[in-house]
Amino acid sequence: MKIQPLFFLFLTSLLFTSCVSVLRTKTETVVFDKEAADTKVYLDGEKVDEGSESFSTEMIRDRDYHRIEVEREGYKTAYSVISNQREAKTLRNLPTLTAIVTGTVTTIITEDLTIGGLVAGITQLGGVVLLAVDDLDRTFSYPRSNYLPAPQVKLVTREEEGKYLFSQEIELDLAEDSYEFYRTNERGFRENKEELITSLTNTEAIQLENTIFTDAINSYLLEAGFMDTSRTILKMNGTTNYLNAKIQQIQTYLIQNDGLYYVTSDVSVEWNMVNVYGKSLYINIDEGSSGNFSHVTQDTQDDITYSIQDAMEVSLLKFLNRAEVQDLLQKKDLSTELLDPITLNQVQNAPRSLSEAQQATVTIKVDEGHGSGFFVSEDGFLLTNYHVVATTEDTLKVLTSDGNSYEAVLIRKDEQNDLALLKADVVPSYAFRLPTDKNYQIGAGIFAIGTPRAIELGQTLSKGIISGQRKVGQNELLQTDASINFGNSGGPIVNENGELIGIINSKLVGLGVEGIAFGTPAHVLTTYLSLNVE
C-alpha cells in the first residue's frame, strides 16, 4: 500500500503535538495581565495597549528578547523584556533525516538536529517511517502568563514657584570591590542561586565614566523642569539649589538564556543637596534598581550603560521624593529676618576718580580661592558677596591696593541678596559712600573693579554700560556688559567719577553667553543689610 506524503505529515502532526508541528504558526497570540488599567504598554517601541486590565497581541516566534515599556502618568517608566523559550518536550535530541523517498523510505542516515534550518522528527508506525518537518523557531513559545506590574517610582517635577536644581559634582567613588559584575541564567538570578552566579573579576572591558551618571541626572533634571534649557538661570539662594552625587556601589547582572541575554543593574548613591554657597542642606544614601534591558542597541556595553542610568534615575527619584528634599525645593523668603541696625560713620574721603576708586577696592582671600570687596567706612567696614566668604567665614584676609594684608571677620550676612559685611583692622586711603537713591541710568557708562582670575590682577578695571534693570524674586539687579570673570565677585561698580553704583554679583554662564553680568544696586545696600550712616 502506498502512503501519500500528506498522510505522513498528518500522522506526524498528531504524534508530535507536544513538540513541533507543521501546523504550528510562525506567530503566537500572547496574553498580558496588568496590575493597573491606567498604564500604556509598548512592545519594541510600538504601543500595543492602553486602558485595559488584560490584552493580547500577536508576537513572532523568533527566539529573541523583546523590550516592554510600561508607562503610567506621574510615574517613572518601567522597563522589562519577554522572550519565547524552547518547550519542555522538544526535538532537541532527535536525529535528522538526510535521504528520503516519498511514501517509501529507502535510506535513512541520522546525523545532527538541523537540516538547513529545519527540524526533522522521525517515528515508525507499522514499519512505515513518518516524517515531521518544521521551522526551528516554531519549537519556541512565549510564557502562558505574563504579568505587568504598574510603575511604582513617582516622578518629581519642578513646581511653578519651586526652586531650580542643577547637578554640580558627580563623583564615581568606587572602592576596588564596589563594582561587581556577574553572569548567570534566569533561575540563578530569580532564586539567587550562588552556584549559578559567576563573578567576572576582569571588568576592564566595561567602561564606567562619569558621563554615564551625569547624563542620567542632567537628562532627568532638564526634562522635569529643574534646569532651564540654556542653563543660564541666575544663581540666587532663594531660587536655586545644587545636587552632588557620590556613586558608592554598582552591581550589574548579565542574564543569559539559550544564547540570549538581558542586563539589569543596582546602584547605591550618596546624594547631597547644597545651596548656592556650597553649604550642605541634606544628605542621604538611596539605592536604585534598573529594569531589564536587551538589544536596546546591538552593543552589550550600551545595554549595561542604559541599565546603570536607569538605576541612577530610580535612586535620584527616591531622593527627590523625600519630605526633607521636597521642603528644600520650595522657594522661601529669606529676607524676613529682622536685623539690628549697624551704624557706619559718614565717609569723609570718598573716591573722586577711577584711580581713587581702585584704592578703595580690596582682594578677599579665602581657603578655596579669592573674591573682591570694597571699603564703605574709614574704620575698616567693607562689603562683598556672601558667596565669596560662605565656606570660609573664619579665615578671611583682605589685600589692599598697596599690597598689605589684614585679617577680617564676618559681621553680617544676607543670604537672600548674596551680601556680606566684613570688618578689618585697617584705615583705608579711600572708602565709598553708600547712596540712598538710585544713581544710574540705562545706557550709562560704568566701570567694574575687582580681581579677576589671579590675585596678581587685583583692582583690575573693566568698562561697560548699564544694559538693563532686572528683578528676580525679591532681588533687584542691574545688568551690565562689563567684562566679569571669576574673582570679580563682590567688587564695586562705579561711574567715571569713582562714585559707587553697585556691587558685582554674578556673571551669566552658558554656552555661547558673553557680556551679561549682574550687580546689586548700591542704593538698596543699606536696606538689605540694615545699615545706618551718620
Description:
The chain is mainly beta. 13% of the residues lie in helices and 39% in strands. Strands 13, 14, 15, 16, 17 and 18 form a 6-stranded mixed β-sheet that branches. It has a 6-stranded antiparallel beta barrel with strand order 20-21-22-25-24-23. A 6-stranded antiparallel barrel has the order 26-27-28-31-30-29. A hairpin with a 5-residue loop joins strand 21 and strand 22 (381-384). The chain is elongated.
How many helices? The count is: 8
Q: Count all strands and give the number.
A: 32
Distance between the termini: 127 Å
Round the Cα radius of gyration to an integer and report it: 36 Å
**Mean of all residue-level pLDDT scores:** 79
Q: Regions with pLDDT < 50 over 5+ consecutive residues? A: 6-23, 88-135, 508-514
The coarse silhouette is: elongated
Proportion of β residues? Answer: 35-45%
Structural class: mainly beta
Query: What kind of sheet is the major sheet?
Result: 6 strands, mixed
* Helix content bin: 10-25%
Give a concise summary.
The chain is 13% helix and 39% strand. It is mostly beta strands and 534 residues long.
Q: Secondary-structure map with pairings?
A:
Layout: H1 5-15, E1 27-34, E2 39-43, E3 46-50, E4 54-60, E5 65-72, E6 78-83, E7 85-86, E8 114-115, E9 118-125, E10 128-135, E11 140-141, E12 146-148, E13 164-172, E14 179-185, H2 186-191, E15 198-199, H3 210-223, E16 240-257, E17 260-275, E18 280-289, H4 300-320, H5 323-328, E19 342-344, H6 354-359, E20 361-366, E21 369-375, E22 381-384, H7 386-389, E23 396-399, E24 405-414, E25 419-424, E26 445-450, E27 460-472, E28 475-480, E29 492-494, E30 500-507, E31 517-521, H8 525-528, E32 531-533
Parallel strand pairs: 1-12, 13-16, 14-16, 19-32
Antiparallel strand pairs: 1-4, 2-3, 2-5, 5-6, 7-11, 8-9, 9-10, 14-15, 16-17, 17-18, 20-21, 20-23, 21-22, 22-25, 23-24, 24-25, 26-27, 26-29, 27-28, 28-31, 29-30, 30-31
